[in-house]
Amino acid sequence: MIRSLWELHQERLGFDPDVVARIFTPSPRYDDPAAAATIPPAREAAAGVPGVKTAAVANRLPVRARR
Description:
It is a single chain. The chain is mainly α. It contains three helices and no strands.
């Protein structure tokens, strides 16, 4: 099991987690349409920042930067 975890840690991610910007906000309730409606415009605004290649929204991050 330890070997599997080690190998997983060495796997290429397809992106550099050290240059991923994270913004933490309170999670809107799924039954609150007004709160949920704020998510797409926020993602679009982030995508419009110069230098940003891709913007996405997730409720959990798959990885953390290795330090």
